[in-house]
Amino acid sequence: MPAKVRIDSSFAQVKISMTSNDSALPKASGAPNAQDVVFLIFMVFVVIAVIWLGRFNFKEGLQLEDTKRNGEAWVAWLTETGTKRMEAGYEPSACAGGVKPEKQAEGAQAESKAAGTWGACLAHIQSASELKGLINPFLDKPLHMVEKCDKSDLSTRGAISLSNLVSTPLGSAVPMVLSPLKEGDAIDGKLQIRVTVCDKGGYPIKIGELEF
Amino acid sequence: MDNTHQTPASSGKTLRTQFIANLDVAELLDQKKKAEISRDLPLRKWLYSWLLDPNIPGNKQKQFDKWLGILIVANLFTLVFEQVPAIFEPNKQFFHYFDVFSVIVFSIEYAFRFYLAPEDEEFKKKRNARLGFVTSPFAIIDLLAIAPFYLQALLPVDLRVLRFLRLLRILKLFRIIIPAYREFMRLNEGRTFRQRMYALVFPSKYSGGLHELFDIFIAGWVLLSVVSVIMESVDSIDYVLNLQFVVLDSIAVAIFTLEYVMRFYCCVEDPKYQGAFAGRYNQAKQPYTIIDFLAILPFYLEVFLHHLFDLRFLRIFRLARLLKLTRNSEATTVLFRVIAREWPIMSAASFIMVLLLILTASLGYLLEHDAQPEKFENIPQSIYWAVITLASVGYGDISPVTPWGRVVTSVLALLGIGIFAIPAALLASAFSDELIKQREGLKADLFKILKDGKIEEKEIQFIRDEAKRLHLSVAEINALIDQVIKDKEIEDNLKALPIHIIAQRPAHAIEYFKTCISEIRQIEMHMTAGDFEKTAQELDRLTESELQLWRQIQGKA
Considering the entire predicted model, what is its pTM? Predict the structure, then answer.
């Protein structure tokens, strides 16, 4: 019978454990018995299960990386376009600067694809630019734009969101306010844009800010 | 080697002077182990004895292995970071210099081992010791660790192949693992598979160095995992390393899950947890096992339920993994024990605190609501104000404006100092009592050890373990031994005297009283907790006042 040992054992008890008759026990080979084999199989199963679950996380991690690459592609394209679009005769004209959008009659529905608006430029980007083939890795569909990432709406995951950074008047508590870039917004002048992508939970990840 | 320290067991005074003169406590506690290596040895033998001989205690072999181990692990990290362009590209130079430094160190190590091979027991018997070394598995691993570096200077080698070959450096750790494994197998000869597993994951006399390596491995992963959780919260770092964090977390969870399952399976080897179901159920209820479970739970919950709920908040609970480190800390165990023991008193103090809080919050609401309806809108809001005031934090966002409100706040602030101090004072005093009790216990054990006039190897080990457990320095152990010898002298002298003679001198009476108290305390320590009081109460063996006195002596009243 094994000697009784307490964690806070005094020396007397330590002595008991040291003099316990271990040698009287039958010698074991140390090889696993049937019970141990069952346990080892269970351990292997646990390892496989964790690897399998880890694979899911890894896959989602890769999808997030692809989403970030999409955002970076947008940042690169908008930055490059932003440096040239104010030049005279810039092509594509849909994204050219200095074009005043047509004034809409009061109360009429704003023409979102009218020249000089973000809608026209977006239509060009999604149909003719190198960004047109980008895929939303979470939904496996063409990349779509959302006004903002929403954790309660999982259809926003993997999407891209562009916001317009607008300076506030002098003396305001915050120097800039963010407003979603809408299709009807004029792009005749320079814009400060923030590019954000939505992660797997619909949380925003800031990719970058640029001058367009 | 003589494994006993002889001390004369005769009279107290002789015992004391001889004992202190003969016994080197620093050596006893393994803190002053200096290798005895003659300077007259030939250079090769001398170098081998200092650097590589594992059989000379106190030489530099352990430090040598330890620093090499750290360098190997650092190499593994750099190899991982090299895969991340955002880290590698701006720090290319640093990575290169670190690689050069590592290769220099490993090459010097290889050269040393090659030169000193004829002194090594393993190779000296061979016809050509150095050839024997070069063809040994460890030497081949050592060579593989440095060869790619030299290879790339001579041949155009693909960078990916080079990196893979550099990964082989991790195999160098086998130089540390294999001796520990051999020692473990020797200690566990003739024991079952489950007993061996128990010795690996729980500390026991069969554990040896392999258990220490196991603990270091787990602690390393705990730290790595906690650092990654903290770094994940930094957006700029998470942006670059998100995928690496995902992989790291999965590996950490796999390791912690296996550890948890192993502990669960083999815990029945502990006499406290016998019984396939009952034992494991009892083990599952232990705080450390609960901590182990909480360390892995967030991962599984998030994987299985993330489609249903937003469980991102659970990630922060991965920081609970840090609590896993408390398993190896005796001080934390003592603290938990003290909290458990003092729980009734602490809960009483907490109850008074809550009572005071609700009363004052209600008073605050009553007195201030009319003057500041937006700040003291209701009693729950007033409770916030009361807590901030009682805890002496005083943010100032809510403050009284009416004269009576200010009076109540003043009283509350003064009371707060006392009320919040009570649990802290209780804990501090209970902690101190526990330490005193444990030191008293050690004193009693030292007393027994010294009684026969010699200290055996297992007694040295016991003193060493206790000194480590109670965080005692050499000076403190010396003071305890001194105290024990002094007590022994007094006891020997006083026991020889009748009570009425002792009573004639107050100093003797006090010493006699202290001896009696110490002996009563020792009774409690040698008994199962609570047995004394239970028996005394069940059979009315002690009066209430006698029981109260017992409790006071044990520091419970």
Answer: 0.70
